[in-house]
Amino acid sequence: MADYIEPKLASGFKDYLPEDMIPRQEMFDRIRAVFENFGFVPLDTPGLEKDEIITGGDPDFKMNVWHASIKDDSEKMALRFDLTVPLARVVAGNPDIKKPFKRYQIGKVWRGERPQAGRYREFVQFDADIVGSTSVLADAEIIAIMNATMIALEIPNFLIRINNRKILNGLTEYAGFSPDKNSAVLRAIDKLDKQGWDKVSTELCDAKIGLTSEQAEAIKKFVDLRAHTPIETLDAVEALMIKSPTAMNGISELRELVDAIKAMGVPDEKWKIDLSIARGLGYYTGPVFETVLTDILEIGSVFSGGRYDGLVSKFSAQSVPATGASVGV
């Protein structure tokens, strides 16, 4: 028997030797330069947070996170799964930060997911967020940063897909199912790109979610809506969901956002309104966006985010609006 420990990595982790790190560092530098060119300033936070910070005190928290503890210490801790929740904690704990606060952060995050090709349990995220602004101009600036970042990385074939969680929250009024099922319905819709409609429909109608076939078909009609221009898409969904006040609010926001994106100079061919975009994280409250590589759609979103106006209030009595996006490397 060998008298040494096999030098084998844990599943879902990766070493980056110099031949890997040199081009990665160049990529990091390009992304950082874009963020700073837009006037964002750096922030850093610990990789380890109190468990209640990471979960937001939510007993139904669904993300698989890495929990940690120290022997003979009762404090429960967890590794961060993104950089947005720690940002919300920082803003809540430092109310004097001048706003709007445009910050970027680069750091490792950890997710207890099953490893897949190209997806690891530990990876680097680059975040850009604007905290303290309710204006759609802030959302449009984040989308402009996403566009500029992809250009800086010399990735020509990409598309930024945009939706609004208020429209998605209006599905309960439109399709006629109970609001307490909405989170599960949105998590199912979020799998549409990877699993296809048949599997999503099966999940929607299984015993756990329990939609009827008619309700699932109404959702399919919604996510299948297509038109030639963003305004035509919004006109079509407005006609479909006219009886949902919640959806009407989201449609109105997207009409403003369309004008703001155009004012930011993002080329029309690089973005679209896509009603199938749900974003799985529950803290999103308004516009949401995902960037996909049009040559390899099967890998899913590579740069995504949205508006999360309620997250800071989980850690403070103050309500602070925020929007942002992150790219994983």
From TrEMBL:
Catalytic activity from the UniProt record: tRNA(His) + L-histidine + ATP = L-histidyl-tRNA(His) + AMP + diphosphate + H(+)
CDD domains: HisRS-like_core (cd00773)
Cellular-component GO terms for this entry: cytoplasm
Enzyme class: ligase
GO biological process: histidyl-tRNA aminoacylation
Stored InterPro entries: aa-tRNA-synth_II, aa-tRNA-synth_II/BPL/LPL, His-tRNA-ligase, HisRS-like_core, HisRS/HisZ
EC number in record: 6.1.1.21
Binding site for L-histidine: 82-84, 111, 125, 129, 279, 283-284
Domain of life where this protein originates: Bacteria
GO MF annotations in UniProt: ATP binding; histidine-tRNA ligase activity
Every Aminoacyl-transfer RNA synthetases class-II family profile domain range: 1-133
Keyword S-adenosyl-L-methionine: no
Short name of any one Pfam family annotated for the protein: tRNA-synt_His
Alphabetical UniProt keywords: ATP-binding, Ligase, Nucleotide-binding, Protein biosynthesis
Family of this protein: Belongs to the class-II aminoacyl-tRNA synthetase family.
Protein name in the entry: Histidine--tRNA ligase
Organism: Candidatus Yanofskybacteria bacterium GW2011_GWD1_39_16
